[in-house]
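Bench notes, afternoon.
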Amino acid sequence: MAKYLVIVESPAKAKTIGKYLGSHYTVEASMGHVRDLPKSQLGVDVEKDFEPKYISIRGKGELLNKLRREAKKADKVYLATDPDREGEAISWHLANILKLDGNDKIRIEFNEITKDAVKNSLKAARPLKLDLIDAQQARRILDRLVGYEISPILWRNVKWGLSAGRVQSAALKLICDREEEIKNFKPEEYWTIDADLLKDKTKVTARLTLIGGKKARIEDETTALAIKADLDAGKFHVSKVVKSEKKRNPLPPFTTSTLQQDASKKLNFQTRRTMSVAQQLYEGVDIKKMGSIGLITYMRTDSVRVSPEAQAEALKYIKEEFGDRYCPAQPRIYKGKKNIQDAHEAIRPSNVHLDPESIKDSLKPEQYKLYKLIWQRFLASQMESAVFDTITAIFENGKYTLRATGSKMKFDGFMKLYEYKDDKEENTSIPELNEGETLKNGGVRADQHFTQPPARFTEASFVKTLEELGIGRPSTYAPTISTLLARDYIEREKKNLLPTDLGKIVNQIMKEYFKNIVNVEFTANMEERLDSIEEGSEPWRKVVRDYYEPLKKDIEFAEQDVEKVTIEDEISEELCPNCGKNLVVKRGRYGKFLACPDYPECKHTQPIVEKLDVKCPKCSEGDVVAKKSRKGNKFFGCSRYPECDYVSWYEPTTEICQKCGSMMHKRYSKAKGTYLACSNDACKATRVIEKTEDDAE
């Protein structure tokens, strides 16, 4: 019998695929890339039309020898790397190393790792697609040219170890520009007028919308109080009541971008964590009594398309589990955005019958949470719309027009499965009103407001912006954010991303000397040209040449003109216990810390301690301080450690539990927002203290 070798990228994927293939198949993992441009040099011969120099990745010699031995024993070798440009390029490199003919039918791909998908891919084996390989090759060479030719300018003039990047630098500019907008924002005053109107014992809150038929614009207190006085003196008549039924349609299934956004909002996952867990779910997880199973389809996609087979399976499941009423009359077809590659389906469960609860015991907590999110979003996308009864009441009081709206869910539809909150459609009731009747005045309020600056980016909103502007592709969003954080160009403040001083300096240099690289439209256009290479409509060398020729001129000018920038360390009030000098603020892998300015002569370092105005609940002598674990997680402990070993993951407060007298901790949940909870596990006392905008999401 013939022997076959199948090469995938990871051991997890190899394990999952191996169980679907018979004993005649050997499945091995390449452990990702096997060849790349050398780290020690540019690796691109610009004089020879950008000819790349690829070398085997250091440390993979033994693995490659094993793959060569297995390939020689096999009658046929199949390359089953990920179904995208990068996966195609890895297969191409493997073919070169193993001396396989790329024109033979050696490439197989599947969007989901299921038995049928894997076996069908063997029947549909094909030659390597050179256009996909060229598109990835162009991206890699462009990124190398930008990184290796601009980064040394930053090393010499700013700080060693910095980097510039084709996508990274444009992304950094977005964050810096947003910070500049916030800094320069000038708030404008405005007022709103609300009236509490009473019908019997029921209150209706109506807002002033028109004055004399024109949109109400109230810019100062004098005007607001004058309007309030007019309304108090007049009568509120119901002039119009409009009742209607409104449908809320489900959202499409996840793309890479929307998965990252929702995982950030609902699960508080960072983009890198989302993609790491999604990769595990795609490649395969050991399920009790079932073995290793790929639970979701490929997670790098910008398509919302769903295969007819998967849609039919979903509709059947919905009908069985929820009833005919929850199945739409026609299957839902979602249209994707313009300029998407649409090579893969949307992200969905490989088998909808594997509901999250049934396999929860086999999943890690983070795998369960993400799988549940994907499973619910996909099924909800195929369900009937939610229906709301809405009512709008218009009130007249002299020349003033006020409006009140209310809605009540009539049929939950897809919302039975997938939470989708909208402030505009909260369940608010309005009593039965008749046109012409007059309601009692329960009080008129004039409230002062100020316009707010644009919000800082969260990871969710940043990914959404990158997608909308066409900067990068699904596979680049998470690495771009990770690189900006690793280079200390940006930092997290709670959920927000903001530039560091270093990031602002680098951005300023890039804006001044490399305008094209940080130009959003230019970067987006380059992504489109990479797509055109994949489509076979443009040669990759021409695209690289068109990009590099003006870049080279910018580099030559910058090398002569950029002036050295000195970055001063922030000096703290803390003194070094060894030499008595003021410690300075440094940044490391897990954030800021204090260090002696005389390094390397004096190597003293210490964490930055955030002192809370709370006494230690265990010893009553020390203060509670905030610290960071080795993994960068925040926790709270006593300042007298190690004499006192008090520690807590939750922030202590000065409030005392009214039930048992214990200290109250500050905690957070999606349902309650930020709230206080008793530190005594036996006492369940809680009290909500605030609900933030992020909580509402």
